[in-house]
Amino acid sequence: MEQRTMTSAPALGAALKPRQLTMMGLGSAIGAGLFIGSGAGIQAAGPAVLISYLVAGTLIILVMWALGEMAAANPDSGAFSVYTARAFGPVAGATVGWLWWLQLVVVIAAEALGAAGLLATIFPGLPVWLMAFVFIAVLTAVNLTHVKNFGEFEFWFALLKVAAIVGFLLIGAALLFGWLPGVASPGLATFTGGDFAPHGFGGIATALFVVAFAFGGTEIVSVAAAETKDPARSVGKAVRTVLWRILIFYIGAIFIIAAVVPVGSAGLKSPFAAVLDAAGMPGAATAITFVAVAALLSALNANLYGASRMAFSLAERGEAPRVLASLSKARVPVVAVLASVSFGVVTAVLEVAFPEKVLPLLLNIVGSTSLLVWTSALLAQLALRLRADRDGIALPLRMAGFPWLTGLGLLILAAIFTVGFIGEDSRPQLLSTFGLVALLAVANWLHHRSAKTSFGVMSADRVESPDRVQSPERVEPPVLID
User: Fold this and answer.
1) Averaging pLDDT over each range in 8-17, 222-231, 380-389, 420-429, which range is the top one?
2) What is the 3-class SS of the chain, one letter each residue?
3) Can you give the pTM of this predicted structure?
4) Which tens digits make up the pLDDT trace of 179-194?
């Protein structure tokens, strides 16, 4: 894991501030999956879902730490794709990069339509399709301008979500302690009444597979590191700050929900609103709906950013059309942004034309992508850290407890995959994602074999050297467009 900066890092605009990177890491872990979907985990495991969240939270902390170590040493917009290429070769790196890109462009459509659908419950006169395309258009415009605008949007989106969580924790604590006038405390009967784990270990395991996806998106920090001033210091601060806050926010919120909303309650469909209703807070459902809309739009904004930077990095390495590496005068990969959002728009149009047919199918195919990305990140960190330690290379940020904590992360992932393959509902999703990975791997292998045949020794060197991810095409400077 030699300490160097890849060609892409200085080519992009290094204007993201440490506060933006920190809030981006925190905000990416606090999404609609927590505000709306956390009830599914409680339904599966009861209050024992806290164990599932602790295990999943530990996993994401280990993944962020591993990514932080690699990003601090080698900031690159390709992040885990580049690190996987350095560890295991360009075919593996390109496969991970394209897999993540596909997930993001599909999810862009889901988030736009989801935010519009939630807002339509408050303003039923507004067409869902129109609001969805307005959201996409506005956030595309944000991503086409200077990267600092993207960072500022994400900062305020994240701040709103953090403020909502803090407010919820304060109200929930007051409710449990009986400090709210005229409102009786529910106490901790759900934890002490013999129903802590109503479905036993199987319920906890099932919930683990469900809640793991709530942390999806945190890997965006490693991508954004390439456009941050003093990335080694900024990434280290972001990782250290985010780690403990994730556990406090998630575990605290889930503890309150599990204490207030019993298993089987209809309130688990919108658990935050159910708690606020129990606390006698007027307009709770509307408030949580607005926060969930903000969470979805924040994710849309971040996913478009991440997809465009991954496409840019793939193009730089010769793994995608060279035009995707074109930069505007503001150092923004404008073609990569437009190409990424166009797939999201097409998906959204198809979903509007054929409701509940196109998007669920695509989401099922890419549904387990985050798990595979986290696996590749931990494996790459294991290989690159061993290489750096062997060569005596000093790293600006080192993951403590290596290699045991990296191994613990891989063990947790193995458990999640095992549970997923056992479950009747989750098995098809995993099989679909693994099928997509196989197709991408074959396509990338054929691409490199073709390049080897066409370019001879130079391309062969690119394919056979895991440490070298810079392709012959990457020697050219990025194309600047007006």
Assistant:
1) 380-389
2) CCCCCCCHHHHCCCCECHHHHHHHHHHHHCCHHHHCCHHHHHHHHHHHHHHHHHHHHHHHHHHHHHHHHHHHHCCCCCHHHHHHHHHHCHHHHHHHHHHHHHHHHHHHHHHHHHHHHHHHCCCCCCCHHHHHHHHHHHHHHHHHCCHHHHHHHHHHHHHHHHHHHHHHHHHHHHHHCCCCCCCCCCCCHHHHCCCCCCCHHHHHHHHHHHHHHHHCCCCHHHHHHHHECCHHHHHHHHHHHHHHHHHHHHHHHHHHHHHHCCCCCHHHHCHHHHHHHHCCCCCHHHHHHHHHHHHHHHHHHHHHHHHHHHHHHHHHCCCCCHHHHCEECCCCCHHHHHHHHHHHHHHHHHHHHCCCCHHHHHHHHHCCHHHHHHHHHHHHHHHHHHHHHHHCCCCCCCCCCCCHHHHHHHHHHHHHHHHHHHCCCCHHHHHHHHHHHHHHHHHHHHHHHHHHHHHCHHHHHHHHCCCCCCCHHHHCCCCEEC
3) 0.86
4) 988 888 888 888 877 6
**Residue, of 338 and 1, whose pLDDT is higher:** 338
Dihedral angle at the C-alpha atoms of 48, 52, 54, 60, nearest 10 degrees?
A: -170
CB 241 within 8 A of CB 61: no
Q: Is the pLDDT confidence value at 366 over 80?
A: no
Q: For the segment 254-305, what is each residue's pLDDT rounded down to a tens digit?
A: 999 998 988 888 888 888 888 988 898 888 878 888 888 888 888 888 889 9
Q: Which residues contact 132 (CB under 8 A, 6 or more apart)?
A: 112, 113, 115, 116, 348, 352
56-70, 147-161, 455-469 — which is least confidently predicted? 455-469
Q: Is the pLDDT of residue 169 over 50?
A: yes
